[in-house]
Amino acid sequence: MVHEKPRQDEKPLGRITISDEVLADLAGLTCTRCYGIVGMASQSFHEGVAELLGKESLRKGVRLRRHDEGVSFDLYVIVEAGINIAEVAHNLIEQVKYMVESSTGLKVEEVQVHVQGVRVN
């Protein structure tokens, strides 16, 4: 596909803005669909116990930072007991990066996975 520069007299048709909430929901939903992830966790520990978040509050387990041309994520998750945590985290990083980039066109600069707990699923 050939990309041509717009002519000088052409004006853009509009602007698309994707809110931080939508990006956080997309990342959170992607996390819950990854193998080995039990669910999203709160970003803070309460008395050493990770709180498993419900589907309506997945974005609470996601912290994002926007950059000039991209976005970075911190994901707070609970993983399934007995599964290789490093493999699950690597898969999660790749899946979130792919889903966000392919759905929004934004560049994912960095994805940090914070394992807040391990549970039997």
General description of the model:
The protein is an alpha+beta fold and 121 residues long. It has a single domain (20-119), classed as 2-Layer Sandwich (Alpha-Beta Plaits), CATH 3.30.70.1350. 27% of the residues lie in helices and 27% in strands. Strands 1, 2, 3 and 4 form a four-stranded mixed sheet that branches. Helix 2 links the parallel strand 3 (70-80) and strand 4 (107-119).
Helices and strands, with pairings:
Blueprint lengths: L19 H13 L4 E4 L21 E5 L3 E11 L4 H20 L2 E13 L2
Parallel strand pairs: 3-4
Antiparallel strand pairs: 1-3, 2-3
Structure keywords:
alpha+beta; 4-stranded mixed beta sheet; 4 strands; disordered N terminus
